[in-house]
Structure formats: structure tokens, C-alpha cells
Known about the structure:
The complex is a heterotrimer of chains A (386), B (350) and C (586).
Chain A lengths: L2 H18 L7 E7 L6 H10 L6 E2 L2 E9 L4 H14 L4 E3 L4 H14 L3 E3 L17 E3 L4 H14 L4 E7 L2 H17 L2 E8 L7 H9 L4 E5 L6 H9 L6 E3 L6 H7 L7 E4 L15 H12 L9 H21 L7 H13 L3 E3 L2 E3 L15 E6 L2 E5 L1
Parallel strand pairs in A: 1-3, 1-4, 4-5, 5-6, 7-8, 7-9, 9-10
Antiparallel strand pairs in A: 2-3, 11-14, 12-13, 14-15
Helix pairs in contact in A: 2-11, 3-4, 5-6, 11-12
Chain B lengths: L6 H32 L6 H17 L4 H24 L5 H21 L7 H24 L7 H23 L13 E4 L2 E4 H23 L1 H11 L1 H6 L4 H23 L10 H14 L5 H21 L4 H19 L9
Antiparallel strand pairs in B: 1-2
Helix pairs in contact in B: 1-7, 1-8, 1-10, 1-11, 1-12, 2-5, 2-6, 2-10, 2-11, 3-4, 3-5, 4-5, 5-10, 7-8, 7-10, 11-12, 12-13
Chain C lengths: L1 H5 L1 H14 L2 H26 L7 H18 L4 H23 L4 H20 L10 E2 L5 E2 L2 E2 L3 H23 L2 H9 L3 H6 L4 H27 L1 E2 L6 H14 L4 H26 L5 H16 L4 H9 L25 E12 L2 E12 L3 E5 L6 H8 L7 E6 L2 E2 L5 H6 L2 E3 L12 H7 L9 H5 L4 H18 L14 H13 L5 E5 L7 H16 L3 E6 L2 H5 L4 E6 L2 E6 L1 H6 L1 H10 L1
Parallel strand pairs in C: 7-12, 7-13, 10-11, 11-12
Antiparallel strand pairs in C: 1-4, 2-3, 5-6, 5-8, 8-9, 13-14
Helix pairs in contact in C: 2-7, 3-7, 3-10, 3-11, 3-12, 4-5, 4-6, 4-10, 5-10, 7-10, 8-10, 8-17, 11-12, 12-13, 17-19, 17-20, 19-20
Membrane topology (chain C): Multi-pass membrane protein
Organism (chain C): Azospirillum oleiclasticum
Subcellular location (chain C): Cell membrane
Amino acid sequence: MNRRNKSACAAVLMGLSCLAAGSAQADITVGVIISATGPAASVGVTQQRTVPLLPKEIGGERVNYIVLDDASDTTTTVKQAKKLISDDKVDVLLGPSLTPNSLALIDQMAETGTPMISLAGSGAIVEPVDDKRRWVFKTPQSDGQMARAIIQHMTSQGIRSVGFISFNDAYGEGWAASFRSLAEQVGIKIVASERYQRTDTSVTGQTLKLISANPDAVFIAASGTPAVLPQATLVERGFRKPIYQTHGVANNDFLRVGGKNVEGTLLPGGPVLVAEQLPDSHPAKAPSLEFIRLYEALPNAGMRSTFAAYLWDASLILKAAVPEALKTAKPGAPAFRAALRDAIEGVKDVVATNGVYSMSASDHLGLDSRSRVMIRIENGGWRLVP
Amino acid sequence: MGPIMDLTIFGFLVQDGLTTGAVYILLAVSLVMVFTVTRIVLVPQGEFVAFATLTLAGLERGDAPGLAWLLVAAGVLAFVMDLSAARRRGSRRGIAAAAVLFLAVPAVLAAVALYGIGASTPLAAKIAVTCAMVVALGPILYRVAFQPMAAASPLYLLIAAIALHFVLVGAGLYLFGPEGVRTSPLLDGSTEVLSMPVSVQTLLILAASLGLNLALFAFFGFTLQGKALRATAVNRRGAELVGVSADYAGQLTFALAAAIGALSGVLIGPVTTIYYDSGFLLGLKGFVGAIIGGLAAYPAAAVGALLVGLLEAFSSFWASAYKEVIVFTLIVPVLLWRSLAHVAVEEDHD
Amino acid sequence: MTDRLRGPLPWLIVAALLPLVLGPYHVALFGYIFIAALVTLGIVLLTGVTGLISFGQAAFVGIGAYTTAYLTTTLAMSPWLTLPVAVVLTAGAAAVIGAVTLRMSGHFLAIASLAWGISIYFLVGNLPYFGGFNGLSGIPALTLFGIDLRGETAMYYVILSFLAASIWAVLNLLDSRVGRAIRSIRHGAALAESVGADPARLKIAVFVIAAALAALAGWLYAHHQRFVNPTPFGIHMGIEYLFMAVIGGVSSVWGAVIGALVVTLMKQALEDLLPSLLGQSGNFEIVVFGVLMLLVLQHARQGLWPWLIERTGVRRAPSRVAADPMPAIRAKPEPGEAILRIDRVRKSFGGLAAVDELSFRAEAGRVLGLLGPNGAGKSTMFNLISGVLPVSSGEIRFLDRRIDRERSRVLAAQGMARTFQHVKLVPSMTVLENAALGAHLRGRHGLLRAALRLDRAEEARLLAEAAYQLERVGLFAQRDELAGNLPLGQQRILEIARALASDPVLLLLDEPAAGLRYKEKQALARLLMRLRDDGVTVLLVEHDMDFILGIADRLVVMHYGRKLADGAPREVQANADVQLAYLGAD
């Protein structure tokens, strides 16, 4: 080993040790992982915008947020969670935005004893609450709960057969599974089940198959503006029966791109989407209006977003749980994380934009039927279906 | 429980396949053209399409078009590169032309797009501005990304093309946001062909793509300039000796490719939703069509592209979850056949 | 061996010490970097060494990862048992894909790799047993003799060990008989064929090795990440792995590590830096990544590693090989015996006869010159003899075996060795290695023994033989230079040394004097005369009459595909027809 080589090695070692050093220690550290870029960007961007609204202080302690974008990629999510937990010593993790990314973190959360409040849809993230999922909570209504709202509405309309089309990805897959099992229970037949891609330029083949199966209604499980294409194609092909979408379409871009093609669309959603139209008796009305006021005042934020509201609700849960946890331990230590986990599991009647959260040892979502409403698109706007 | 494929459905699927295929034809012939002149597989061809649609939609909505800023910034970079190349060469030849092409044209177009377009501007003018901006971007991208490495092997050029695609997609997300757009239809209504309703827009796409294909075939096959452009691909040094600069040929080809991309974008904007990242798969499928045509012949590339479009239409009917699997798996035998039919020439890498 | 280890060993020690100075997150990060380095190591073999391009390596990582994920979660198999399963399964898939797609060249292969990269992503995503797009969770951590290898540091050492072992094996492989054949492929299949190697099989072998490395990476990934879903194995990752290799330096093993390191750390830094710098949402990381890639391609196309090596001025030590010939592998024919018989051979291209009813023979221990003006058909005749082209009619016999339909590879095994009109050497190999390439058929050890370094005794003999041939042609002193750096005259002589290393019965030389300067021609002529005195049989194709007259024992002159004259040089020179043909042609 010559001298040059030796000193090069030493320099590398020193450089790396600098990398390792230096992580700030705030009072309460909250890690936030969202998907602000990549295929799920339209979901994550709204959550990224919401971060500045989150409370800066809870229970008299300062709260420090560290926000990372996982670009919708699971490898990155796991890396970032490792970083947040080991380097930044976060007390709790909010996110990720997506189901696969949330599932990818379950083991790590359990092994490091860090509570996490996921912002993703699938019920599989918190069900069943086993040894690993003890540490995992979530705020969005599960696919199953939302699907149940759709099924109830379909039943009330006398719909007996449905044509189903969804994204060929985790989002579509989650909906396909929960919708299929619920539909079977009430005797609604799925007469066609199709997939398409977010960036497809044509879904004529799938649409023809849906129409030729002659269903009473079509249900499109997709999110954002890509959900327009199947509906537009159906309408162009003369399909005039009810079309259902998921709450994933609830943004103004969907209305803009969809135009008259999406008039009359039915979708389930969090109460926050139509907060102004809720009866005053609805518990979610006041917190929703408050959130909307803050969110829509942000520069470039545009319309309220249910996805943004999930992050907001997660912070409301923290607001309720952190003071409890502070009673037994100080932030930045495993004891505090454990106490926080217990406190989150113990929150009761947290009134939030998506309904009322009451967690328990067997329910790490804690939402009931007040958490969703049916919405119809009328005159280019969202209307509450009573 | 699979629904029966009757004649109507068959007809609609063929129509759908032809429409999609027609767009792939546009991309495929453009890829063939760029490859025959520069040996570059222009992966970012799809970005020209997406940027055109997104810019047009932005103009229709009254948003400030982000493309204008990209155009100006890239133009300045291209000019600086030309300037420093001129200094190294010790000659100021071509600087004036570069100033016009890389500075003046983008500045004028950006000014028009930012300040000259109002709600009352006719659609045709918006389309013209959109196309002009995308076309102007073409030579600039060639200058910045490919000209410094034009002599590299095709495989390195392919990797560079993918790198450029990354840059453009990232810029696209920033400039246009994650959501999709649709533009207003150029022609409304439908007509009957063989007692099937066919939208006029579809016919327009088909006509444009076939017309362009023939035009390129004629240009490269029969005109002196077309032959000169092709000669640069075969022998850069030789072409330069007879007065065809490889740099000029590359920039001209990229302008043509961008024009074809812009045209495709304007044509498909009304029939589908386009996103900042729609370009990749569009380009890839055009590429598949071009490869089926051996990356050399325009009519063969067009047939290949139509084949991809039809395959896609039918597989999305039969097994939509596996559409991409089917499209990309079935091309392998075609590729194999092409590569075996293609006389094995001894390949020397650098 | 100590020579080879002096370079990497300190770095291995640095790598082993890293967890002592790094926090757990960076240890985990380096785990991911080394996993990526395993994949790029395969790409170096595939793209840099063999000249094949693949965007589909991530799909092979996926097959490896999913195999172990599925077997350990649903069937509760031990991860150590799933490792061979994952590797064998992936290698099998690669062998099938390779058999179909490796026949394609250049862009066809690249697009095919995109195709399978995309297909596998959607295929896995739609298969419910693999958890669909939501993936499989609950993959167990590795254990070793009851020790739980959960946690960043333990996994880091596991990954590092596999990476170090893989690099060792790949370095061994490249520095071996098969390795030299593999390195020759990208310089033309004809070169590999001429020394008796089978380029098609070697390509598939390299492809399978690259896939196996990817599978190993996938297996490690699954147990490091403890979760798999289709996105990390999609086409964008396939592209990223290729980019890592190109940035690091695609033609060097260390480039693979450097590339994975630089790209991952840079992405990490950008993730931390860009949002605070720009305060905007957007995928700036991909923009910076793309720009960096373009800069590397424009300014350091060979990648960072060769660039670094150049800057640090590291030089390799002289090889300590002694010249020592191997025992002959075949009995030499008696001098004067006709070993090559050309009988009424005809070759036509689309009705045009390039060789027309030509007959002659070559005798052992003599130098036969095949002479003719440009366009006389002598190159075609050379290609017919050397198995590059099949004859249209007629017969060619070599050592009493009919060879007019045999491939050059088979001819090499029978004792025919050749040089090329346009010199074909492996410029990135040393002179010694290039000569040793010629002895390909005199060794037997294959990929596995080479990778495990069980081929050293044979390897030493092959190198000694190569050194002997270099000494014979006068290039021994230049043995450690890169062949690409030699002047043309020496390159031609090196080709002869390479041919001699195969212990040939017949040496075919294709215009060896073309493009040489006067002094170089003289040196070549002296060498050929020395070889003749050693009893080597030579068939020399040439159009330079003056050069050939002093060397050949007999001349066959061709004109318009036919034989014009056949006899001793003096007679032929005096032949009026020959004079007319030459003077008329010139």
C-alpha cells in the first residue's frame, strides 16, 4: 500500500464520518414521507403543500418537521424511513402517501418501535392489528369503507350489475379487491373487470368490453385526471348509465379536463370535500371549514384536497395524543415513542375533517360511517348527495 | 363470461388501432429520419408530442406557457456553447446564425406566447405559436445534448438520448404540473365509413400521418437535399467535404423531428389526455414500430407502427391487464425475424 | 496474486471499517449501494466487456427478489436455500431470453431488453400469488448459525462479502482463458471464431452471469428491504443501473462500484439539497441526473474510473512470465505433404464468379503465396479457405478432411490459424494477453474454474506459451503494453504470434504487408523466413509482388477469379501473362 493510497483511504473515511455526524435535535421531531413526484405526484403534492400548516407546537413542546419525497418509489421510502429513524431520531412518522410504500415500512416501524400514521388507502396497512401493525395507524378511510358507500348507493339505485375498470397498479388493485368482495355480499354482479394505464392514450378496447357486457353502471377506480379518459370514452360511445368514480378524482383538474363528460359522476368522499354543504350537525363540518380556510389561502394551492386533509387529520390526532405521551416520557427517546404509540391508540372522538377518529387496540383507523359521504358532480362542481 | 367480439366491436377496435397506430407512425417515421441522419435513437421524440399538447392546452386556458422559459434558457445555453466552440476554433463564422437561431427566435416566440396570446386569439394562432416553439426547441436540443458527442457510437448516443429524456420529463413536471390536459377538438363531428361512425378527428390523424410519411419518403428518397442529409449518416467526414455540415444536418433533422412531434401533439390532444410523462411510452411504441421497419425504411416503419397500434387495441379488449406484456412480448419474435433477415454485418465497436 | 490484491485490499479494509464511523442510516445506504454495484458489475461484463446493451437488468433483480420473497413467506423456506433457487431460476430465465434475443445485434437487443423489462413489471404486478402491485411483506431477515443478521450493520457485512466475492470472481474470470475470449467478442465475432471460441455461446454465458449477479442483488435486496413490490424492478431502474455503469466506467470492474456509489450518494445529496434550494415541488433530481449523464457522455465517455486512473497515474507492475513453450498438441505432417487441397472451387455472388474453378494445393513446411492484383478474388479465396464463406461448388480439403462447409471455429480446432487484413486485436488487453488468446484451444478450463481461480496452473502454461511466441516474433519486451498502443507493423506481428500460439499446422496470412512502411515490411519478411526455416506452413495472400517474391517457395497467381500461373517465384515472375496482368492492372 503506497502512501498516496493510504492518504486517499484516510480522506474517504474522514469524509464519510462527516456524513454521519450532525443531526439536529428538536423537541418533538416528526418525519413526513410523501410522494410529491413520480406517478403519484398529484396526490403527494397536495400533502407537501399542507406541511407549513401543521402545528408548530403541541403540548408546550416545539415540533420540528422533516419532509422527504419518496418519488413514489418503495426502495426510497424504506431508505428515507431508516434515515429519519436512525439519524433524525424522529418520534413519529407521518406518511407515506401510497399503499405499497406504507406496507414496506411495517416491519421497520415495529423493529425500531416508532409509531407511524400512514396516509394511504388500503385497509391492509392496519388490518389486522398484529404484533407488527401495533405501531401503524392511518387516517384515510379504507378502500373497503369507501367501497361500502358506493355499494350502498348502488343498492339504493337498484343497480344489479357493474362494469369495473381500474388503474393497472396498486391503487386499482386495492379497489378491485375490496369492491369485488363487497359486491358479492350484496349480490351485485361484476360483469367486466378491466385495467388500464395512467398514461394510456386510448382505452377504447376496455370501454367496448364494458359496454358490450351491458352493466347497469360502470365503476372507475382511478385517481386524478387520468380517471377522465375511460369516462370520456364511455360517454363518446353513448354510454348513458350511472358512472361511479373514487375519491381519488376529487380535485379541480379532474373537473377541468373532464368537462361535460363527467357531469353526473357519483363518488364517495371525505366530508371535507363538500364541507359547506354539510348539515351543521355533522361533526366534520367545523374542522373541515377551518382546514379549507387555511389550505385554500396557500399560494397556488387551488381547491381543497382530501389527500391533504389526511395529513391534516394525522396532525389533529398527534395534537390529541402528544400531551398524553408527554406525561410519561420526554421526546427523543424510545420510551416517548412507546408512550406516543399508546396515546395514539387511546385517542377517542378526535373530530377531524374526515370524520371522527376513535382508535382502539383492534382498530388503528377509528373512523365510522360519518367519515364518508356520497357526492355527485353537478354543473362542474361537487354536490353532496343527501 | 367474455363478451362476444361482433363485427361492430371489431370495426371499432380496428378504428382505434388505426388511430393510435397513426400517431405511432408519426413518431416512427420521425425516429427513422433522425436515426438515418444522426444515428441517434431519439427517445425524447415523445416529449415533443407531450410538450406541444400541454403548451397548447395552457394557451387555451390562458396560462403563461412554461415552455417559453425552457426555450429561452436552453437557447442561451446553446448559444454559449457555440460561442465557446467558436473561441476554441478561433473563428467567428456561424455566430450570427447561432444568435438568430438560439437567441432571437426563442426570444420572439417566448414574447409572443407570453404577451401576444389572449382569450380572443383564434385557435389556429395558438396552434401556430405552439408548433413554432416546439420546432425551435429541436435544433437547440441537438446543439446542447448531441452535437458535442456526435461522433460517438450509436449506443452512447442512445444513452444520451435517454438522459435527455430524463431532463425533459423532469422539466415537464415542473413546467406543466402532474395533471393531464385535453385540448379542444380541431374538427367536430363524425362521418360514416363502411357504415361505421368514424370521428373526423380520427380521419384527420390518419390523413396527416400518411401524408407526412409519403412526404418524408419522397424527400429522402428523391431530393438532392434529402440524399445529402442521409449521406451525413453514412460518412460524416465525407459529407462535410462536399459541403454538408453534420452539425447543420443534425439541427435541421431535429427541427423536422420536433415539427412532426408538435403536429402529433396537436392532433392527439383532443382525443386523449396527455401528461408531462406521456411521451415515453408513446415514443417507445413508435420506436418499436420503427425497429420493426429496421430503423431504415419509411413504409416499413409505418407498417410496424400500425401493427403496434392494432395489437394494442385488440389486447386492451381481450386482456387489458396484460396489454403491455402482450405488446412487448409479441414484438420479440418480430425483432428476432428482423435481426435475422438483416444480414449480419461484422460490428466493430469503438 | 499479491500483485493483484495490493490494489483492492486497502479499499476492502476501508469498506469493512465503514460501519464504525457511519451512522446506521448511512450503513444501510451503503448496503443499497453495494447491492446496486452487484447489478452494475453484471452490466460491466455485459456492456463494457462484451458490447451488449441491456435495459432489462432490473427485471432480473426482480426475479431474484421475488423468488426468495415468495419462497420465504409462503413456504417458509430458509433464505439460504432460496439463494441458489433464485440464482438458478434467474439464470435459467436469462438463458432462455438470451437464446432468443442475443442473436439480435445493437439496437434490436436494446429494444428487446426494454420489452422484457416492461413485461416482467406488469406480469408480476398482475399475479396475485406475488401480492400484485402491493407487493409481499414480512420477508424474514437473514440468520447465520442462529445469529440474527437483522439490522443495518450485520446486513452490510453480508452484502459486502457477497460483493467482494463477486468482484473477485469477475476479476478472475476476465483474467483467464475464457475471459480473454469474452473480451475479444466486441472486437468482432470473426476474431473469437478464429481462435476457436464460440462467440454465440460466450455471449449467452456472459448474459447469464450478469443475470445471476442481478439475482444475487435481488436476493440481498429482498432481505435488506424485507419487502418487495414491482416498482423497484421496473424499466426506470433498469435504465438507472445502466447509467450507473456508464458514469462509473462501463469497461472496468471498479467502474461498477464507483458508478453505484456516485449515483446513489449524489441522488441522496440532491434529495436533501434541492428542495431547500429551490423550495418547489418538482422532480429536479431527475433533471440533474440527466444533465450529469450528458456531461459524462460528452466529456468523459469512458466513465469516471478510467478518468480517475489517468489522474492518479497508477501503473501496473511488469508481468513476471517466463517464455516456455507448451508441448505440441498435434503431430506435424511430413514436409512436402499436401495439407491443403483446393479442387475446382467456385464462389459466385449473385451470378458473378469471384472465384472460378480454382485448384491448387499447399505443401507442409513451405510458404505458398497467393498473388493477384486488386479484385482478382484472392480475398474471397482466403475467406473460403478460412471458413468465413461457404463455397458455391468444388471441394476444399485440409489434412484430408473436407472443410468447405465448416465454420472458422472448427478449422481453428483442426490446426488452421489466421491473421486479418484489417488487424483485429483486443486493444484493451496487453500484448501478452492477445498472444495468449491464440492459445485458447490449448486450455480446457471453463468459466467456473476460472472464476474460482482453479485454473492457475493451466493459465501459467498458456501465458508461458504466449510469452514464448512473443519471444519468437520479437515482441517479448512489449508484452505488458496495451495492444492498442502498438504501431501497425507490430500489431501485425502480434497477430502472427497469436496465430502461432495455437500450434497451427497451417498459418493463413491475409495481406500482412498492407499499410506497412518499408522497415516494417523488412522486419515482417525476416520473421516469415525464420518461421519457414522452423518448418511452419504458411499460405500468404498478397498483392505486393516484391514482398512476396523473396519469401514464397511457390506462387499461385489469380486474375479475375481464375488461376493465371502456378509455380516457383522465378518462373511465375517471368510468365508473360502475369506480367501483363500486373502491368495492365497497375
